[in-house]
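Data deposition worksheet. Section B asks for the primary sequence of the deposited chain exactly as it was used as input, without tags or linkers unless they were present during the calculation. Section C holds the resulting structure in token form. Section D is free text for depositor observations; keep each observation to a single sentence. Incomplete worksheets are returned to the depositor.
Section A, Depositor: J.P.
Section B:
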Amino acid sequence: MAARPNLPALSTISFNVNQKLSQGSYSRTGTFILRRDDDSTVTLNTPGLMAPSSRGVIPHLSQDQLARVPHLGWIHVPFENYLQDKTPLPTICPDAHPLHKLMSLKTEKHIVSMSLRDPSSANEMPANTAEFIQTQCIRGCRKVRPPDYISYVSGANPDIVIAPGDTPFTPPPYSQKRIEKSITRTLTWLTQLSTGLAPRPIFVPLMGGTNINARAAFSRGSIMVTGTTTSTGPLVERLDETLAGYVLEIAPIQAELRAQLGKQNGVVPPPLPTTTPSARAHAFATNVLAAPDPLESDILNYAEDIDTRLPELVRSSLDPLSLQKPRLALGLALASPHVMLGLVEQGVDLIDSALAIRCASAGVALDFVFPVVGEHSGDKLDVGHNLYDSRYEEQFSSLSDKFTDASSNPPSSDKPICYCAACSPIWETQPIEHSKIDELTSREGPDYAPAYTRAYIHHLLHTHEMSAHTLLTFHNLAVLEAMMAGARSTIENGTFEKELRVFEAIYDGGMRALREAEKAWRGVDRARGKGRLGREKAEKEQYTLEE
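Section C:
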């Protein structure tokens, strides 16, 4: 392998918060700018989206298909995906930006952040210690010491690094002593990273679980006087001086709230769905995905509980911290658009789009718009369509009722156009000019093909075609990006909170369509393979008894 070129100077970031238009509101817009050593910049408007990745790709999107999602400017990489090798691949990639190279990303368009653990993972893990952090890869658990992580960061050279946190992944609830250890260890590891990696941009996960006092104590601990010295020499009085931003990890909070809900009801809730792609092999081996579904009331109560508890937990972490630094929210695969908008209401600037990928994996096409257009009466609307359902077998319309496609002639004036590769695919093949006498008319702008229909994707899902999930990923990401664009415009107009209340009143926050789709996914996935005859026999006997 060729020798790696000298690493360029570290990138720098700046974040400008626009002046808030209303008093007493935490929602805000801003501009995040990453500047590289060659003076090129990557600019993101906030609130905005980030994309999670797994083992070098965004799930369901190949590297060449990423070009069809132009609005995704921030990709997050969990480094534990590469720990199956003794020497992780990014650390030996012969490029100045190894992660960009491995994922076919462009340095002038994409920002890459890196964390040790997958923020969407809530799988049970062995306990951390003061000396090492437990990680999970396809070959099982790996122990990583903080100095090892510093070495991995130096080798992989991400634009932004997220410090490791001592998040407990043993079954909750957690004792006060365990929470105190979590805070102390995370601050200790943060000090080691700050001294070893400065002036690289470092984001810190905000610890404390579901304990409001613990979360506030961690935030205050990061701004207390420490008197440490970085590797470059200058004295750092407060850890917060070395930090570029803050991270809220939502998946562990959801797992802990779910356990608390079960304890209140006197039941033990089934395990949360497997959300991290890196753990799917383990999930199939242990049949986690086939676990019995929780009761309908349990899910609805859980969704309501997370919606009501999350704002106060977020505020307890953010109130002591600087307003001039960006806030990230990661691990939202088990959330809903309501939770995402609720985080924006609390002042979170960048939110991961794991929900779009989870819906695409389950066969759900998102279909909502923010702010809401028009009026609605009656039952709450679903935020998407379960395309496994047989009612879509002969529906030859586009994926969304709230958006129109670019090939419509004329396009609907009261609906925005969805330019995703599923709703507005572009003819990529152009006529070939074979000789000078061939006179080909030049076209201005792209030539849009008809949209893929619900019936077609319904067919793809039931025949196990991977392209179904790819098309749904294109569409779902576009819907969430439109939601964020709507959030930015309403914040600037001073109507965000009002529009959010309307959205919550019209759309179902329990994600009923997603839950039904995941049940259908399991049925289709288990329709073939080992044990099929036994399952069919049992179903036949059940139907006979019912008759």
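Section D:
The longest strand covers residues 12-17.
The chain has 14 helices and 17 strands.
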